[in-house]
Specification:
Layout lengths: L11 H12 L7 H8 L3 H29 L3 H9 L4 H34 L6 H8 L3 H19 L2 H27 L5 H8 L10 H14 L6 H6 L8 H29 L10 H15 L2 H35 L4 H15 L1 H5 L1 H30 L3 H6 L8 H35 L1
Helix pairs in contact: 1-8, 1-12, 1-14, 2-12, 3-4, 3-10, 3-12, 3-17, 3-19, 4-5, 5-7, 5-14, 5-15, 5-17, 6-13, 7-8, 7-14, 7-15, 8-12, 8-14, 9-12, 10-19, 13-14, 14-15, 17-19
Length: 442
């Protein structure tokens, strides 16, 4: 089979911004700050950083190493290093990316709509009633498909002319918007109370197994691990890329966006006395509580809300691009052209997501299965493959970085620490997923 030459990133900066964009998504804008506020504040932040270093970074390095070394997407990268018996893991990555994007497009469609509405007429006074009206049904399907069409249009342009070009524009825009919002949030009355709630310190929470699980899960999910996105992006790198340095930059940038988002959200909520409306639902906070806060702020709230949802939309778009590229890249590796792969598979993703756009209960079940189970399974399998099965992964990782003395520690974490932590997370995720699935059919 004759295939086109492998595309490559035009620059290290382009790859870094695209990879950071893959990591930064809807969860960064609320879930991290909520977990920090509810689980010990600054103590949770320290635990999260420890889980990032001990669990997420080793898996991130493994994905980057496999993609760059094989110069192919997940389906063939695992076969390249481990033989045909590891092909099912590649299919797990592609399936997880496909399924996640199918319902992620629904949530991103809401984000696109809220951004447009902020421009057209501002935020509704009754945010809960508005969200109940627009979150499911034919109109939600239309916004879902519209967002995926935008995503597919960028992916169809290829690595340099599509994904890299978009990332170089979108990610600096997101950083600038968040920085400006953080400065504004610091000036509102009650900002100090919001910061105190967000960054309270309770070191007793460090002894909680639930907090440990939440910190590990957030570190893992936030970096787009276990679905082949980072592996796919790394497959377009040249052999001289310094993967350890790039992995650290990606992880720190992802953390910075999540942390700064909390510095925006909590001062605004406390300034308007809406802290009692903060709940465990990410969707409820993003699409009900915060729009209500922006509506209460009047003209200033419309401007601030527009900027916030614009940042949210950028994060959703860059993450969706990486998810679609996982699927498209695997098809290209099997001989498809990029336009055909993008149109055909993007359309299949859109059709699959219609059920979630028509019923938010279906969306919740899909998230429980794909986001909370399949990703962890994928990460656990990667850790076991690189830690125990792959021959000399340290040598492959050293290409471009030189022989580094701590590489043995990296493999030790993949062998022992990462599987143990992910097994704990998986043990709690599977019953929750089964319960949500049963509830859907009851």
């Amino acid at each position: 089979m004759i295939t086109a030459p492998r595309e490559h990133w035009g620059s290290r900066t382009g790859f870094m911004l695209a990879a950071i964009g893959s990591a930064v998504g809807l969860g960064n804008m609320w879930r991290f700050s909520y977990l920090a506020a509810e689980n010990g504040g600054a103590a949770f932040v320290l635990l999260y950083l420890a889980m990032t270093a001990g669990v997420a970074l080793p898996v991130l390095l493994a994905e980057l190493m496999l993609g760059r070394g094989a110069q192919q997407g997940p389906l063939r990268a695992l076969v390249h290093f481990g033989g045909a018996r590891w092909r099912p893991l590649g299919w797990l990555f592609v399936g997880a990316g496909f399924l996640i994007l199918s319902y992620y497009g629904v949530i991103a469609g809401w984000t696109l709509r809220y951004t447009a509405e902020a421009i057209w007429h501002g935020f509704p006074a009754d945010a809960a009633a508005h969200f109940a009206q627009i979150s499911a049904g034919p109109v939600a399907v239309a916004w879902h498909l519209g967002f995926l069409a935008l995503t597919a249009g960028i992916v169809a342009g290829g690595i340099q002319r599509g994904i890299e070009r978009a990332s170089v524009v979108l990610m600096p825009l997101l950083f600038a918007i968040l920085a400006g919002l953080a400065v504004y949030a610091a000036t509102v009355p009650g900002a100090g109370t919001g910061y105190a709630y967000y960054l309270q310190t309770d070191f007793g929470e460090l002894l909680s197994l639930t907090v440990l699980r939440d910190a590990a899960g957030q570190a893992f999910f936030s970096l787009s691990l276990g679905m082949g996105a980072m592996m796919t992006y790394a497959s377009y790198l040249r052999r001289d890329a310094d993967l350890p340095d790039e992995a650290v930059v990606i992880a720190l940038s992802d953390f910075a966006v999540a942390f700064v988002a909390g510095l925006v959200v909590f001062p605004l909520l406390f300034a308007l006395g809406l802290q009692q409306d903060v709940g465990a639902s990410t969707i409820g906070a993003l699409f009900i509580t915060l729009p209500h806060a922006f509506a209460e702020m009047g003209a200033a709230g419309r401007a601030v809300g527009l900027l916030f949802f614009a940042a949210l939309l950028v994060g959703a778009l860059t993450s969706a691009i990486s998810l679609l590229e996982v699927v498209v890249s695997s098809a290209i590796d099997r001989g498809w052209s990029r336009p055909v792969a993008t149109l055909g598979l993007g359309g299949a993703v859109g059709i699959t997501g219609i059920a979630a756009a028509l019923d938010t209960a279906v969306l919740g079940v899909m998230d429980q299965i794909a986001g909370n189970v399949l990703l962890i399974l994928g990460g656990l399998a990667i850790a076991l493959f690189v830690g125990w099965s792959m021959r000399d992964p340290e040598a492959e990782l050293a290409a471009g970085a030189g022989r580094v003395h701590w590489f043995f520690l990296w493999r030790g974490l993949l062998r022992f620490v990462v599987p143990a932590v992910l097994a704990v997370v998986l043990a709690s995720a599977i019953p929750a997923a089964l319960q949500s699935l049963r509830a859907l059919f009851d």
